[in-house]
Amino acid sequence: MFLSNPQPWYEEIRQISGTRTVQIIIISLCSMVFCQVLKFVLFSIKERKPVFKALVTTGGMPSSHTATVISLVVSLGLFQYADSGTLDYSFAVALIFACIVIHDAMGVRLEASKHAQILNNLLKDEDKQTRIELGFGKKGKLKELLGHKAFEVVGGIIVGLLFSVIAFLIIRY
Judging by beta carbons within 10 Å of its beta carbon (0-12, 13-18, 19+), is residue 126 exposed, middle or buried? Predict the structure, then answer.
């Protein structure tokens, strides 16, 4: 790789960064970052003060997990079809992966959110140290915002779809 190639390392990185693979990764990650920033804005408006925790938290509107995997599937499909006129097995893998991530966000993680709310309510009268000893974390409270409601996932689908289509149009033409 770097040692066997006589060209400077920065030239090799420049060539790699222009590949479809890297473009698809960048589009997907930018979609995720956009969702987290949008989440920050929406949480901050709701709370009437900056909620910086929203930049790195799970749950909430829109689903950044969903936007990321939808962006991955759509950009991969668009570039593959535009470049070769077909879709290969990697598109199928990405599509199944996206279905699993979205199902998990609305299923398992949403149920875990409900369980955390119930447990926090059941033990709200216990002292903080007891809750910490029971495994409720450093603050003595379980995190409740884990999963997504359907409209939050739809928001992530819309963001991921729009982000990848716009990026494809910019890069492709």
Answer: middle
pTM exceeding 0.85: no
Query: Which tens digits make up the pLDDT trace of 151-167?
Result: 888 899 999 999 999 99
The residue type at 169? L
Q: How far apart are CA 173 and CA 171, in angstroms?
A: 6
Residue 144: is it exposed, middle or buried by C-beta count within 10 angstroms (0-12/13-18/19+)? middle
127, part of any domain: no
User: What's the domain range around 29?
Assistant: 9-107+147-172
Q: Are 67 and 82 in contact (CB under 8 A)?
A: no
Instruction: Examine residue 86 and state whether it is found in any structural domain, yes or no.
Output: yes
Q: How many domains does the chain have?
A: 1
Say what the pLDDT of residue 89 is: 93
- Rounded to whole angstroms, the Cα distance separating 75 from 13 reads 22
